Amino acid sequence: xxxxxxxxxxxxxxxxxxxxxxxxxxxxxxxxxxxxxxxxxxxxxxxxxxxxxxxxxxxxxxxxxxxxxxxxxxxxxxxxxxxxxxxxxxxxxxxxxxxxxxxxxx
Length: 106
Hints:
The structure is a single chain. The protein is of the alpha+beta class. The chain has a single domain, classed as Alpha-Beta Plaits, CATH 3.30.70. The protein has helices spanning about 30-35, 70-80, and strands at about 5, 10, 15-25, 40-50, 55-70, 85-90. The protein has a 4-stranded antiparallel β-sheet, covered by helices on one side.
């Protein structure tokens, strides 16, 4: 795999990741956000409740930072009794590139 270094930072480091997660009602999304937000390399966490079932919550988690460690994020989510259903988006590199609508998207 191609890996460039600039000082100590990898150009390919993850800057944003969007996850579809199934979690038990406890811990709350507040506690989960605090735990994820406290991890090294993460500067912000947004959790949105998508659906509530009898025993579980489906949530969308968006994480941004300078160098997100996916394995540590996955471990933290698992420790909360939750499971990642899918990775719905990833941004990597030196900066985050926002999606742009093209004529085909209209």
